[in-house]
Amino acid sequence: MDLTSTVKLLNSIHVSPPPGSVPTTSLPLVHFDLPWFFVAPIQRLFFYEFPHSTSYFIETTLPMLKSSLSLTLQRFFPYAANIMCPQPPGKPYLHYVEGDFISFIVAESAADFNHAIANYSRPVQLLHPFVPQLPPARLTEDGLRVLPTLAFQVTLFPNSGICIGSAYFHVVGDGSSFMHFMRSWTSVCRSGGDLTCLENSLPLINKDVIKDPSGLELAGLKSYWHWVSSPIKDEDSGLTPDVAADKVRGTFVLDQAHADRLKHLVKAGYGNSVDSEQLHISTFVVTCAFLWVCLIKSKESANATNKLPRGNDDEDEFYYFVFPFDCRNRLEFPVPTAYFGNCLKAGLVDMKKSELIGDNGSVLAAKAIGNKIKEMGTSGLTGVRDWVPGLIERAKTGRLTPVAGSPKFHVYDTDFGWGRASKVELTHIDQDGAISLADRGDGQAGIEAGLALHKFQMDEFITIFQQSLKLL
To answer: What pTM value is reported for the model?
Structure first.
C-alpha cells in the first residue's frame, strides 16, 4: 500500500519571526559545528492525543501554533536562517535576513493514530508520511551552497491525534538546543502567545563562547571543504533516502527496577574492590550496555540462520558503540547550559565480540561505557580532533552502533496545551542503525529505546531482550 496516500496536504506556509524583530545577522560556525555537515537531517516526531475535528483544529488550534512559532523564532532565529556554504577556502556560516522562514506543512491523515504510536513492531514506512521534507539545497551564481535549517509538518488525525513532525540540520544545533527551542515553543503556545514566559530560559546565541586553543577549526574546515566540493546528495536536498522494505520499528522499555538490578550485577562483578568504588554506573550506562549486547546477539543469531550476510566468525573481531557527550560546563572554558549550537564529543567504545556475547557481556559493556563517560568528563577538548575520522573508520566495518537522543531531553514533557506527548520517535534511525533513547512516555522512571531493524533480526532481538530481562 502507498502509505503517502493516507496523508492529504491541507496547506503549505512559511513562518518567520515577527517583522522587524530580528536584524540581519551572520553567525560563524565553530569547530563543534563543522563535523555535522556529514550527517543527514535529524527527524523527530511528536504525537499528541487530540480528540477534535479538522475544522476545530484549523479554526482554533492552528492559528496559535503558527503565531507562537513565529514569536519563538524571534528568540531562536538561527532556525529561520540559512546555512551558507562557500567553496574552499571559504568558511561556512549562518545568515538571517528579514523574510527568512521555516517551511510549515499542514496535513491530514486517515491512518490509525493508535497504530502509529504503538510500541510493537510496525513497518518503518508507516511514519515516513509524517516527516517533513526540508526545502532543497540551492546553488547561487557564485557557487555558494545554501541550506535551510528546519522544517515542520503538522499532521492531524481527525478526532484522534496530532503529529508535530520536524526535520533539521544538526550543524545548526545539537539535541539540547533543539529541545530548548521546542520547550520554548510549547511554553509560548500554552501561554497564548506571551513571550515573557521565556524570560528566564533564553538561549545564549554567542559563538564567542566556544574557544579553540588547539586549532581544531582547521581540521573541521578541511572536512567541510571536502564535503562542499562534492555533488549535492539527496539528504542535502532534504530528501529521505530509501529504506529497505522489510525494516520494522519497535520501542522497548527498560524500567527502573530492571536498571537497578543491572547496576547491582555490575557492582557485584567487582565486589568491594577499588574498581567498584570508581565505576560510573548510571541508568543510562546499564541501559546502553544491555541494549548493545542484545543487539549484537540478535545479529549473531540472524547470521547463524543465514538471514543476514555472514561476517567474520573471529571471536576477537571488534564491535563499536558511540554515544553523544554534552560538553557544556565540562570544558577548560565555561559553556553555559543555555548555549545554542553544538557542544558535543563522541564517546567511542570498542569491545571484542567474545566479550559482548559472553555470560558477562552486559557487565563488561557497562564497565567500558561507564569508564568512557568518566574519562570524557575530565578530558576537556582532548580527543575531539580524532573522533570524526575514528567514527568513519568504525562505521565502514558495519559493526558500529550509535546512540541518538537522550533521556535528559525529557521529550515527553513538551506540551502545547493538549497534555504530554503520547509518543516521540526519531525516524532517521531507519537509515543509520542507531538506538534512539528517551525518557519513558508513561512518565515513570526508566528509559525508552527505539530500534529499526530488518524484520527477521527484530524478531530475534525481541526474543533475546525479553529472555534477558527475565534473567535479571
So the answer is: 0.95
